[in-house]
Structures are given as structure tokens and as C-alpha cells.
Amino acid sequence: MPIVTTNSINLSVENATRYVNDIKRDNRILSFFLGSTATQAGTPGSSEQRRIESYREASFYRVIDKDNVDVVTKKNDWAQVPFQTWNLFSDDLNNHYCVNANNVYLIIGNSELNTTEDDEQQAPSIRPTHTNGIVKHNDGYEYLYLYTISASARNVTSGNLWIPVPDINLDQYEGRLLYKKVNATALSDIEISYRNPEIPILSDTGTGAVIRLNTIPLSKSSRTESQKRFQIVGIEVVNIGTTEYQDADVRESLTVSMPNENAVTIFAIFNAITLGFSNTENFKVRNIIRAKYAMLSLIATSNEISTVTDQTDFFSFGVVEDVKDTSGNLAFKTSKPILNNEKIKTNNVKITVGRNGLSTAPTTTEFTVNTQLTLQAKTKFQKGKVASSKDGASSKIISEVQIQDSSQYEAGDTIKSEKSDTVFLIDSVTQPTIEPFSGKTLHIGDTTFSTENNTKLKTFVTQVIQRF
What we know:
Elements: H1 9-24, E1 30-35, H2 48-57, E2 58-63, E3 69-74, E4 97-100, E5 103-110, E6 134-136, E7 141-148, H3 151-156, E8 162-164, E9 177-182, E10 198-200, E11 209-217, E12 230-240, H4 250-257, H5 263-272, E13 273-277, H6 285-288, E14 293-301, H7 302-306, E15 313-321, E16 344-346, E17 349-354, E18 372-376, E19 384-391, E20 397-402, E21 414-417, E22 423-430, E23 440-450, E24 459-467
Antiparallel strand pairs: 1-2, 1-15, 2-16, 3-8, 3-14, 4-5, 5-7, 6-7, 9-13, 10-11, 11-12, 14-24, 15-23, 17-20, 17-22, 18-19, 18-21, 19-20, 21-22
Helix pairs in contact: 4-5
């Protein structure tokens, strides 16, 4: 029977990283569309039907800028609520890091004595503000500074749900002692003859790591220090290590540092404490805070949109890969084009409609948005939908139309609007340069974006999260 793995965090992080890197290196070029002439009521964006219709509904395609793509993870703002600590023995981590003032911190302590009994029981009261190293506060919380979110990255991932995560490795913390817990209840009946003993951790590979066992006295104060007995109530790390640890003999470390204690006592202490050293091969920030998501920011300004379409209201959007032009080449050559006509391309067919012989002239009321158009004198069953209309010269109407097969429209064809019995003549046709049904539709969603009455620059901004 095959092994089913549902929690491969590092694999997910690696896939998210490769996905984003492919886009940034132009190995994958993604674009998005805005489109539809009305709300797509009753048919969810994730349905296959919406994918089938996506080419017809797309009014234009805009390349997704490589600078607007990043690996992200969920944002945990610092707050006065209990947090987890980073724990290399658990796969159920979600709030073991926090963000304060755009600095990201790994939480490596969440109580004064680091006991299993107090784990996730106490809330912090002092905000972390340092930008280097490890700091422990008087509230018991201990933070390892990871990185600061750059201003440019904050623009990409604006909002309160996600943060960008850089692809950096914490070299100076590889193989270091960053996790410590003690089961104080298990040691409630154990007495030792040392006050707050410091224990250097023995290893064949690493050096410098030292822990301290926090104790309280059990004997009367009148006794001499050598006569006193102590109870272990906590643990702390005095030194995380000066070189990388690939192994550690904790039991022997306790034995060497506390020679007055018998083997039974040493074994009890050994079983009650848990120490964890970070990975020596790589200690990547993305793995540490589980950055297994890619964020795509879809951005288009009203000025850009107006260069390719007169349509002003849009009700759907979608992400597409490898859209091609009518020559069979990729419609977008790079994810960072310079010229506007290399960034955005129309997909509506534009027709100019006039009188057919002695018929009346067309009016914009007969070609309002979402009106259906039917070709005459051709055995065609597809109906077009008006996306925009405006008055043209010589009593003509210039309309943009959405239709599955735009090649059906040719100059000299006759056409009728569902709002009139009059048959009109198509004087000219401008076909889009996008190859029909090209590209792979990766995502579809609903929106209500309008550039109408554009006295100020308007910007369509939507963020799509891809989970790996």
C-alpha cells in the first residue's frame, strides 16, 4: 500500500520557491484578464464552465509583472495572546512567529521558566523591536530576529493577511540550541544538590552550547550551601553554541556537570528535559515559518486599460499562462516589458456598424452593454455581447463585442441587435491579436471594477494565493 504524505512542508516550500523563481526568470510568463459584461450569477469561478467561457469573457490580457510575484506566508501580528514556540519535534505549528513594525521574529520562548506546563499559556506584554540576534523580555517571551519586510515588498503584499518571505538562510544559527523545554511536574519529587547548575552540552561535533537548570531551594536557609537541596523548576539556554551541533549527549552532559547526583536522578532529569538543535544543512527562513504559498498581484491602471478597450465595467478576472498571439508566438515575451503595447493587449473584436441600404442609422441605445447581437444571412448560432459602444462618424456606431469565435465577423456582414428589428451593416472589423483559446486558465474569480468617469487614475488590484 502506498504511503500517503499530507504534511510535507519543506516540499511545499520548495515548490512555491521554484514556481516564483520560474516567473521571475521568465521561464513562466503569466498574464491576467479582466472581462465579462455582467455578473456571472449562479456559476462559480472554479467551475469548468467558467474555464470554457474564459476566452470569450476576456476583454483584455495584461502581463503579470515579475516584481508583483512573491513567496508568502500567513501574517501573525504580535498581540497579547499566547504564542507557540518554534518546535522541531512538532508538525503542528502555525503561530510560532510574529510580525511587529515590519520586523519578523521567530518565537523561541513563551514563558519565564520554559516548562511544558506553561507552554502556550501566557501572553506576551512587551513588543519585540530589536533587529539583530536573540532577545528575551521580562514577560518570558524570547525572540530571534529573522528579517525586516522591505518597503517594496510591503507594496506587493499590502493588507493584513500575508507577508513576503525572502529566500535567505540563517547561517549563523545552523546547528544551534534553539529549543528547550522541561517537564517540571515530572521532577517535582526530584531533589538535587546544585543551585541553578549550568550544563555544557557535550558533542562530537558542536561546541559552546550551555543550559541552566533553574531551581528553588528546599532546605532551610540556615543550612550551608553544600547541605542544601534544590528542586528543578525551569530551564534556559545560556549559550546556543559557538559551532554547529550535529549530535549531543545530554545524559552524559548532566552526569559530568553534576557528579554528586546518582544515576537514577540523572536519568529522571534527562527524561524530563527536551533540547532541540536547528538543522545544520540549511536553516531557511521560508522553511522555518512555512512559506508554502505564492502570491500573484494582478495590477492594471485605468490609463493602461483605456489604451486597449473602451469597456469601462468588468465583472470577472482570471490568471492565464502562455497566452499566444495569432502568429502562434507568446503574446508576452517577458514579465517585465517596457512599452505599454507589450504589457496589455485587447481581446474584444471591434466593429463599426452603419445603415444597411435605406435602413435607419444605428444608435447607442440599440447597442448598450450586454446586448446580444446576431449575424444575418449567415448560418451562425453564436451570439455576440456588446462590451462597449460609442458614436462614430457618419451616423455610425463603434462597438466592442465579446464572442467565442470573432472570425465570424467580417466587413459587409449584416447584424441585428436584440433591441431592434432593424438590420445593420458592418462597415469594418478590427480583430484582436490574441489566438483564440490559447493559454491555460489557472484561476477565475469575480469582481466589480469600473473605470467609468475616470477623473482620477484608478487601479485594479487583486491578489491571488497559490498554495503548494
